[in-house]
Amino acid sequence: MNHLPTAIDTGAPVHAGSAASPSRARRHTARMMAVACALALCGAVTSAAAADMVAQKKPVYVCQMASHAHMAGHPVAEYDKPGICPTDGMELIDKSQRLRVAVLIFNGVQDIDYSGPMEVFGQSGATIFTVAGSTNSVRSAWGLQMTPDYDLEHAPQADIVVVPGGDVGSVIRDPKALDWTRARAVDSRAVLSVCTGAFIMGKAGLLDGQSATTIVGATEQLAAMFPKAKVVNDRRYVDNGKIVTTGGLSSGIDGALHMVYRELGALRAESVARGMEYEWREEGKLAFGQLAAYQMPDVAEFVPKGAMWERLIDAGDVNQWEVGGRIELAAGSSDFLDQSAIKMGAAGWRELPAAGKLGRSFTKTSKGKTWQVAMAIQDADAPAVYRLTIKIKQVGA
User: Fold this and answer.
1) Is residue 158 predicted with pLDDT exceeding 70?
2) Nearest Cα to 296, choosing from 364, 350, 358?
3) Is the separation of the CB atoms in 106 and 112 below 8 Å?
4) C-alpha distances in Å from residue 96, one per residue of 45, 78, 238, 394
């Protein structure tokens, strides 16, 4: 755009009776006419530009399944008003609201960590593409072979970037992958990690000063590795604005639905959740890390190496939990309980007065809550096979 000078030289002032007055007056008039024409032309250009902007802002609508496989090979049809897509009977969406979503993939990536959010964003009408260290194929944790759409260097910008978990070791050791993740945190609306993808975010320095979460079994490790982050385990997802982290596995679906809610509104998010037949709570509460099961010791710690263990009971809520089953004990039940007591003590549990010949009780206070564990053995229906029950409850709940 051409700009007019800030000062216009109109010549010397014209004085009545001066011999030069007529010619100077003519020059003055000519200059003023030129200025007026320039201003008129500028106004016309500005008006035309404004008209173009109005035309460009007119909504264009497309099918929300425009990127789905059944539409592949067909040009994306555009409509000038909202309605129903004649191809698949779904509601049309505003083209300008179609999110661009980049999904990082790598060897050992956890399948639900990337596929869950992809389903959510796909249902919302997003354009989705995958990114990896190179365009060579990668295999997921369950062996699915995928060919990335882009390598790190050539991936286009995205509105939202998904960083899944899984076998993240190779990624957190890759400077290029970490640089790419950091850069995306600058030029995208949000970077969303799922499960142990939070470790990639942490290694990229994106969790410093942020609240964060990950799969419940790795929250303590995340806190230890990245002490500048505030790690929580009572949320399905944590939204800091640019940086969003979710709990394990299916929590990525909740985090993706939250992003749809945040960027496109409640109506779209709720519609996507219903379409997926997914029970979604936008507030992100009821995290599995709050269940009493995660306060009790892992049975695997007590089962003798090579022994039979068959789980028959595994149920409870946030205040109590019970695990029970059949266990093979060649050394007998008393020896098993003695060895278990030693392991419980090493884990910070204090043994309570004897709970009977074939039982042990323990207590422990953690994060302001006091828990009691009762471990009991009963004879079962076969030689050297017993019924083991471990119960935990919150005291004073």
Assistant:
1) yes
2) 364
3) no
4) 26, 12, 27, 51
- DSSP for 83-140 reads -B-TTT-PBEEEGGG--EEEEE--TTB-HHHHHHHHHHHHHTT-EEEEEESSSS-EE-
Listed residue (309, 248, 280, 286) closest to 111, CA to CA: 248
Residues 6+ apart with CB under 8 A from 326: 308, 309, 310, 312, 380, 385, 386, 387, 388
pLDDT for residue 152 is more than 90: yes
List Cα–Cα distances, 232 to 185, 218, 247, 347, in angstroms. Answer: 21, 11, 10, 21
Is residue 240 within 8 A of residue 211, CB to CB? The reply is: yes
Q: And the tokens for 341?
A: 């007591």
Indicate which residues carry an active-site annotation: 195
Query: What is the Cα–Cα distance from 362 to 371, expressed in whole angstroms?
Result: 8
State the residue for tokens 């505030």: 230
Query: Is the separation of the CB atoms in 207 and 229 below 8 Å?
Result: yes
Cα 371 from Cα 244, distance rounded (Å): 32
Alpha-carbon distance of 325 to 190, in angstroms, equals 45
**Looking at 171-258, which runs of residues are DSSP E strands?**
190-193, 211-212, 230-231, 237-239, 243-246
Q: Average per-residue pLDDT in the chain?
A: 85
Which among 131, 128, 182, 135 is positioned nearest to 160, based on CA atoms?
Answer: 128
Nearest alpha-carbon partner for 191 in 290, 257, 259, 132: 259
**What's the pTM?**
0.74
**What's the token pair of residue 70?**
């059944």
Type of residue at 356: G
Cα dihedral sign, 265-270-271-273: positive
What separation in angstroms does the CA of 300 have from each of 146, 228, 340, 343?
35, 32, 11, 12
CA distances from 177 to 131, 141, 148, 164, 365 (A): 10, 19, 14, 13, 41
- pLDDT per residue over 68-110, tens digit each? 666 666 777 888 888 888 877 777 888 888 899 999 999 999 9
